[in-house]
Amino acid sequence: MRAITIFKAVTKNWMRSRSGLFFSILFPILLLLVFGAIFSNTGGSTNFNLYIQNLDRTTPGGNPSGLSAAFVDALNATKAFAITNVPPEENATSYVQKALGPLGGNIRILIISEGFQDDLLNGTLKVRVGISYSTLNISYQYFAPYLNDSQRIAFQQGLVQMQQYNESLPERKTSLTIMLDVSDQPAMIVRNIITSVANAFNYQLIGAENVIQFIQTPVTSTRLTNIDFYIPGVTAAFIMTNGVIGLTSNTSEFKRRGIIKRLSLTPLSKMDWIIGNILSQTLLNLLLTAMMLMLGWVIFNVRIIPDAFAILLIFLGSVMFSGIGMLLSGLVKDVEAASAIGNAIAFPMMFLSGTYFPLEIMPSYLQTFAKILPLTYFSEGLRYAMIYNYPEGTYVNIAIVAALAVGFIIVGSLVTKWKEK
Amino acid sequence: MEKPVVEVNSLIKQYGKLKAVDGISFKVNEGEVFAFLGPNGAGKTTTVEILECLRPLTDGSAKVFGYDVTKNADVKEIKKRIGVLPQDFSALEKLTVKENIDLIGDMYGQHLDVAKVIELLDLQDKTNERFENLSGGLKQRVGVAAALVNDPQLVFLDEPTTGLDPKARREVWAVITNLKKLQKTVFLTTHYMEEAQALADRIAIIDKGKIVLTGSPQELISEHGGLKVLIIRKGEKRVADILQEKYDNVTLDKSADVLVKVDDVNEMWQVMATLTEMKLNKEIEIQSPTIEDVFLKVVGGRITEEGELKQ
User: Fold this and answer.
1) A13 at the B interface (CB within 8 A)?
2) Which of B79, B86, B107 faces A2 most closely, judged by CB atoms?
3) pLDDT in tens, A283-303
4) B102 to chain A nearest CA, in Å?
5) Where are the domains of chain B?
6) Is B52's Cβ below 8 Å from some Cβ in A?
């Protein structure tokens, strides 16, 4: 009963604090709006700036050759690029630098070299003849036992002539020059898109068709958008900061101002105090999750609905991060240091636990490090529960978070001082 | 018959080599206002916090209402029966006066009607005011209200007026006087001499962890306060010279006031008679010794406004 009184008082005190409300609820919501704007595709498609200098002209200074123009059209058709043409007489790098202006930007230049069309046609012819020869040769091996001598000789002569013709054709390959800045993070994506378009172009010219067909099937039962995937991550991250930064700072402030000392002079037990704070954190985090989801439903049309496991995880996560908060505030004496340590732990954990960036893109040692971070299991569990509908994954993460919650609460309560020295 | 509610025997509290409390023994009787008077670091708060079961003792014994502060089962009984205004009292800033007193009250099985406690402390106008918006004096009154909400038999007030302006200090004094009328036993710690003298039935002067003197203010003053002083304002050297011929303890201070220390009332009348013969038209003042004089005599220093001992 005393724990409920503490829960009510601490929650009321927090809800009336503007800074508390801002950092616990409004700041996460603002961040969600920013993420939503970036990832929900409501603000238009992603366009990478790309400068193209087409040097393959029908006549010097004339129109672009048919195939080079078709290649640029194919790049345009991907809708991945905002293409700017660089006049052929200009130095491409200087032109782009000048075009980007004093504030700069990412230099991405594709130069289509002179002779692109001719090289492509000749190179394509050699490839086609080569493929035909290879096909006929295989057919001959298969049908030879059924042919008479004169038919075999005629076939063999034909194959020899075809091979000789192919060898007489010059090795012609055309090249595309891609100039990318090493500091440009999306450069790899840009290069991959251009390469894919070039490959598709190659196939079209030799008349080949893809025999591998890609069938994309969503792994989730409902059709979800990018922002659906970010909501559990952002929610998990802020449930973590509410405990590790919020509770640490609050408890240290209560300690500094003698409020904990005053309460410890009454029959209130340390356990009641801890339970009251955990309940308050749980309510705050459920409120935060509800607001994030409601905002997602209304603004970004997200479809995820938390089930009982997600709510259980939020409770366990609140307990776990409250335990960490209690531990930190118990170990650190002054408010400023508690806040600094809370931040020093929370921010790296936020970015290294796969809440904002997938763990796969991180170096292997950071992936290993992520495995010791409690937030990794919490956010993963929330994703499993809220998005993937994958009970086994949810159970495992619930078990890990529950074990960590018990551990941190025990250690946190041990270092919470209820008596002076 | 005096009934002790606090009994302390040979109490020691040691931090490493430092003895914060060095073998003190005293009793606090039911219904009295008992003051611990001493400078910062004398061991006042440490002693009180041991009695409040907030701090363990190193050696000796301490009992409150007969319950041992070192036994867990007894601690619960003690906490039910005491009210505490800790040093630098604070409460939840965003909660109102009533909510904060309610919070403390709800920690006890039974408590007084919060509205009545608020009325007792004359805080009715501030009932719904947030704690953060109160003045220092009002915050202390909320602290006292919180200390009284469980209707305790013994109230600890640890430095209740430190940092308050004179007006707020007087307000808190009035509250403490009222507690006495309510027959509460009050254990007060202070470094203000005037406060101890005005409020306490008995004073224990504590310095460097030891109790130097215990007694009622009157006893302490009469036994250790020294002589009364007759002050002849602007008496100047001529008067001082005449009086010095007849009396021993006559001095002239920097303000040209003549100070005559007298042993008793007879001697005082003799001095007055001499002054009448001289047909002096000067302002005369009789100054009685105070607890400050007692403290100066037994400790050998004065306590500054901030609570530091000045030798």
Assistant:
1) yes
2) B107
3) 999 999 999 989 888 888 887
4) 9
5) 4-223, 227-288
6) yes
Alpha helices in A57-168 (DSSP H): 66-77, 92-100, 116-143, 149-168
The alpha carbon of residue B269 is apart from the nearest alpha carbon of chain A, in Å, by 55
Domain boundaries, chain A: 2-40+225-415, 45-115+174-222, 131-173
CA distance A28 to chain B (A): 23
* Chain A touched by B254 (CB under 8 Å): no
Judged by a CB distance cut-off of 8 A, whether residue A420 touches chain B is yes
Residue A41: CB atoms within 10 Å = 14
**Residue written as token pair 């040691």:** B14
Range in A178-187, B8-17, B38-47, B161-170 with the lowest mean pLDDT? A178-187
* Average pLDDT over every residue of B73-81: 95
Closest CA to A181 of A312, A81, A49: A49
A419 touches chain B (CB under 8 A): yes
Residues A370 and A362 sit within 8 Å (Cβ to Cβ): yes
* Contact with chain A for residue B88, Cβ under 8 A: yes
Which residues partner with A109 through β-bridges?
A51, A179
Burial (CB < 10 A; 0-12, 13-18, 19+), residue A66, is exposed
Contact status, residue B6 vs residue B64, Cβ threshold 8 Å: yes
CB-CB under 8 Å, B84 with A420: no
Angle of helix A308-331 relative to helix A270-300, nearest 10 degrees? 130
Restricting to B residues 110-169, those with a Cβ less than 8 Å away from any Cβ of A are 130, 146, 150
- Mean pLDDT for the stretch of residues B185-189: 97
Topology of B4-223 in CATH?
Rossmann fold (3.40.50)
Contact between chains at A12 and B94 (C-beta distance less than 8 A): yes
Cα of B103 to nearest chain A Cα, Å: 7
Burial label, B15 (beta-carbon count in 10 A; 0-12, 13-18, 19+): exposed
Reported as a pLDDT band with limits 50, 70 and 90, residue A43 is very low
Q: What distance in Å separates residue A294's CA from the closest CA in chain B?
A: 28
pTM flag (> 0.90): no
What are A90's two structure tokens? 């200009």
Per residue, what are the HEC states of A273-332? HHHHHHHHHHHHHHHHHHHHHHHHHHHHCCCCCCCHHHHHHHHHHHHHHHHHHHHHHHHC
E-strand spans in B46-127? 59-64, 67-68, 82-85
Nearest to B189 by CA among B206, B175, B177, B174: B206
ipTM exceeds 0.85: yes
- Give the contacts of A53 (CB within 8 A, at least 6 positions apart): A85, A86, A87, A88, A90, A92, A95, A109, A110, A111, A112
Q: What residues of chain A lie within 8 A of the CB of B107, using their CB?
A: 2, 5, 263, 266-268
Say if the Cβ atoms of A5 and B89 lie within 8 Å: no
Task: Give the pLDDT of residue A122.
Answer: 80
Give the Cα separation of B240 and A32 in Å (integer): 87
Fold for the domain defined by A45-115+174-222: D-Maltodextrin-Binding Protein; domain 2 (3.40.190)
- What is the CATH topology of the domain spanning B227-288? Alpha-Beta Plaits (3.30.70)
Provide the residue type at A203 as one letter. Answer: Y
Rounded to the nearest angstrom, the gap between the alpha carbon of residue A96 and the centroid of all alpha carbons in its chain is: 30
Task: Give the number of C-alpha atoms closer than 13 A to the C-alpha of residue B209, restricted to the C-beta side.
Answer: 12
